[in-house]
Amino acid sequence: MKAVFFDNDGLLVDTEHLYFRATREIFAGRGILLTEEMYVEYFLRQGHGAWFLLEQGDCPPQEIERLRRERNRLYMELLREETVLIAGVDAALKRLLGNVRMAVVTSSRRDHFDLIHRRTGILPYFDFCLTREDYEKAKPDPEPYLQAIKRAGCPAHECLVLEDSERGLMAAAAAGLRCIVIPRDMTRNGDFARAYRVKGNLAEVVDEILNEL
Questions:
Q1: Helix, strand or coil for residue 201?
Q2: With contact defined as beta carbons under 8 Å apart, do 131 and 109 qualify?
Q3: Domain map (residue ranges) of the chain
Q4: How far apart are CA 183 and CA 46, in angstroms?
Q5: What is the pTM of this model?
Q6: Which residues make Cβ contacts (< 8 Å) with residue 65, sequence separation at least 6?
Q7: Nearest partner of 90 among 203, 6, 187, 179, judged by Cα
Q8: Burial classification of residue 121, based on how many CB atoms lie within 10 Å of its CB (0-12 exposed, 13-18 middle, 19 or more buried)
Q9: What is the pLDDT of residue 36?
Q10: For residues 188 and 184, what is the distance between their CA atoms, to the nearest angstrom?
Q11: 3-14+85-212: what fold?
């Protein structure tokens, strides 16, 4: 193993509930109750979001775009208020440092990503970070991980992906990569049959990686 690719939201940082909170508030203002189950299905499994619900309600495209901007503003306000680094992540990354190449491969926008990590202190552990602006198609499309393979300069069989959601697992599998899934609250009931392993936390994964080296 030469490279490990990390998802961001739900794996390194606990931000998914904040994104859900901001999105739910925007939808509520348009009379739509976005439940956690709906959010998990549309955002974390299918990966296309729930804006089609507004389109079905005859909401014009320019209004949907305005609502997207408002959701993003609310989300960034929440990020400024919360401590989001998942417990044990810093220690786990420190153990891997120098043993493999490490990269973050996320569907987050760059401005969100930069704000998220303004206080985490973990970005120096990574050789590179790919955000939504670095590819045309987001997960579950394989393009993000195909870009990561190319950037890392390693063949797929020497790379490993760490994810927390079905959407991420599908992207990794479609790119021909082994994927270890570490589910969290919102993704715990997902279908991870295609995963190489399913683990409880990042420390367990690091133990396995170091044993393989």
A1: coil
A2: yes
A3: 3-14+85-212, 16-81
A4: 16
A5: 0.94
A6: none
A7: 203
A8: exposed
A9: 95
A10: 5
A11: Rossmann fold (3.40.50)
